[in-house]
Every structure is written in structure tokens, then in C-alpha cells.
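Contributing: when you submit paired examples, paste them exactly as shown. First protein:
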Amino acid sequence: MSETADELTRTPPTLEDYLHLRAVSGLTPKSAPQGEGARAGSWCWSVIRHEGRSVAMGRVIGDGGWYFHVADMATLPEHPGRRLYSSMGFVETAPESLGMRLAR
């Protein structure tokens, strides 16, 4: 039996995967039209697929020249990402917001 490797892609997740990843990871749920806008209006995507399914994502939005923002970073609960971020010096931002920030 062969193992299926995880795949890093630069293409957006499907709309269904985008909406699902946001909802189950604790981000604010979005409607299908909002999801389509996010998918189309992003500067860059990074998506991890496991066995063909999107299990983690992040996207970059910005003006294309000077300002960029990493948004919608989400990981399915069964593929924990917080341990990785914690090991790199990130800390929880709650209760101000859901997420993590780099500690200074």
C-alpha cells in the first residue's frame, strides 16, 4: 500500500473547501458569494491538499506593490497547525480576536 503525500499548491481551494475550512477552523463563516469574491480577489494562495482534499489554506491580499496582508489562514482540526505556529514564536490573540500573532 502506498502513502499519499500532502501537496502544496498555489491555486485557491474549491468554494466548498474554502467555506468548510473557514467554518470548522473557527473563522467567521462566509456565504458562497463572499467566498467566490475571496477566491477571485486574492493576490496569492497556499493550499495544502491531503488525498485530494484541502486541509489547510492561507491567502495574501494586497495592493500588488506595497501593502500585503496574510488572511484566512485555516487548518482542519484533525491536521493541527497551532503547534507549528507556537514552535515559531506565535501566541494566541484571544480574547481580542481568534488567531495568533508573532510575539515580540
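Second protein:
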Amino acid sequence: MKVYKEHKYFVFELDDGKIVKYDLSNGQTIGKLGKPVKNLNSQLRGHSIYSVINSFEDEKYKRFLGFIRNHFVSNHISNIGTFLNYVNTYGFFEQYFVADITNISCYLRIPLNKVPKQLIKLCQKYDVQIDNDIIRAYTAKHDDMISNEGIFSSVLSLELEEIVDRDRFLILKGLSNQYSNISVLIITHKYNPKALFKYINHIILHEALNIDEILRNLADYANMMSKISPRFDRYPRNLLTTHQIAVRNYNRLKQIFDEQAFKNRIKESLEWKHDKFVFIYPKEIQDIKDEAVMQNNCVASYIDRVINGECDILFMREKEHIDKSLITLEIRNKNVVQQKGRFNRETTPEESVVIDKYNKYLSRQNVEEVIC
């Protein structure tokens, strides 16, 4: 038997030379004698659904029929006519298979002519399954400057070793629900799309968060920190922890302090250099706020204490990277009482040795003041 599609008909050329037709538009069967008959099975006695599928000459159409059989027809159904009714019901999938697009979801309900050609090219290039969520996300209209094509290209073009396929799909599907937060991050806070999506994948893998949670927390964190300092860490290693610290410190960081009173307390005599390190006294309140957001610590809570003379805050940095936070120091009575790195990490052995030498420098200052 040979089977092919001719306009609205499935045409079955039987081995004995007789022809049977099935009208896809109304489900009517034209029998071997050229007249309508009720039962297609009686005309194709000895043939099964699988033999019908395998008898198709067109390989693309054969794949289409196999897709319908595998996804929509129960195993207990053997009636060829019933199977062809399913083919008629889900006929819009034919467009995809004829166009040689086979990586599609069985839940897809959007016809091919409604799918942007560029999205099809991207999905084919990167072997991404086309489904309703991806199409809706790509075709969504937004009142901003982000190109959907640009965002999708950024996600899809990531190297496979950097982002696994499963998470790539989750990110793409999450774009629709979280587009406003993506807009905030990329447009308002100048996040690089490719770097952003690499970061999202990292957090998915290491903090077990979904894309909605990641983007909500990251956008909220960026909104808060950007009001305090443009130097905040855009890609914190521990997103949830950093976000919690940001929430806790936000009101403290945005507080308005007496700038002149702070400047009157600056003690440049506490500054020091040794080997590749320098110890810097902040020159204005914003310097401490910058340190707080770069270090993700609570040093901003010490601004009042500096103004009131309770303590001094200094920054230990490398000479070659003087603008990059390294260690934050609290000084009381010319003695280091706290020394913390980013996320309140402990100092390294090398850093501790230098801080010990700095403490000796402070001790000598104390002696000199007593002598004077």
C-alpha cells in the first residue's frame, strides 16, 4: 500500500490497484468503488495505524503522523478512522513538520504562521523546543528599549558547559513573567544581558532558586543598593544572603548624616603604607556607604560612631587596586578591634601579618602622643 496527501484527501493506493480516500475536511470515506462508505477499517482490512503511517511516501508527513500517534492517541485505539480524526483535530502541527521543525511541544497550540521567523531560527540553531511559553515570551509587547531577539540570543548563545539545556528552557520560559524585572536590571541598572543570564544559571545551580525568585530578589537588591552607591556588587555570590543584608541595611544606608561633622573627624595620621598595601581613611560619608555595598557588610552602621568619636573606620587595600574593597577595619583607641573582608570573611594569613604591623604603627603613635 502507498499513502499520500492530495489536497483535502488522504489517498490510499492498495496493492490490488484500488483507491480509497479519506476527506480530512469532513471525515467522509470514499471506498474502493468510488462511493462514500461508513467504515474506513472495512476498506483497509489487514492494515493498522502503524502500517498506514509507514506507508506514507513523504518522510516529513510520516514524522507528523507519528507525532500525533505518540502524543494524542491512546494505545487501546486501533481504528484507523479514529486516528485520522485526531490527525484532523491537530492538523496545525502539520505546518511545523512540513517546514522541517520537529522539536516542538505536544502542548503547543499556536500555528506556525503566528511564530516569528527569527524565533524559529534561534530555536533551530540552538535546538530549543518550541512551546507556548517561549512564543508568548518572545512576542510579548513591552514599553521599553529591550529587544526580545537580543535577550533570547543572549540566553541561547551561552555555551552548553556554562548553562545546561534544562535551565536554558526555564530561563527562556521565565522571561514572560519576569520581563519587568529584566527591564529594570538591563535598562535601569545597566546589567549586561549575557552576564546576567550566566549569573541566573549559576544561582539556579547553587542556590536552588527558580528564575522568578532570582529576578525578584536581584531587582529589589539592585533598586535598593543603587540608591546608596553605584558601586554595589551586581552579581553577589550568595544572592539570598546578600539581599537579606541589603534589606537590613537599606534604611541605615540611605540616612542623611552631617557631612561636615564627619570631615572634622578625619584622621589622616592613621593612614599607612606597607609593601603592596595601603590603609586609607574615608574622606566623606559616601566612601563608607560605597564600602558597605561593595563588602556587603554593616560598616554603614558605624558612621554615627565615627562622627561621635567612638571609633575610626579605615580601608585596607592593595596599591595596585586602590579603588577595590579588600578589608574594612574598625579602630578604637588606636588599636584594630575588627578586621573583616567581603561578607565578613576572616583575613588571610598575609593580610593578618600586615595588620599586625599596622597595629604596631598605631602603638608607636600612642607612645609619641604620651611623650608630647
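If you have annotations for the second protein, write them as plain sentences, like these:
The chain has 17 helices and ten strands.
The beta strands are 2-6, 9-13, 19-23, 29-30, 36-37, 272-274, 277-280, 312-318, 327-331, 336-340.
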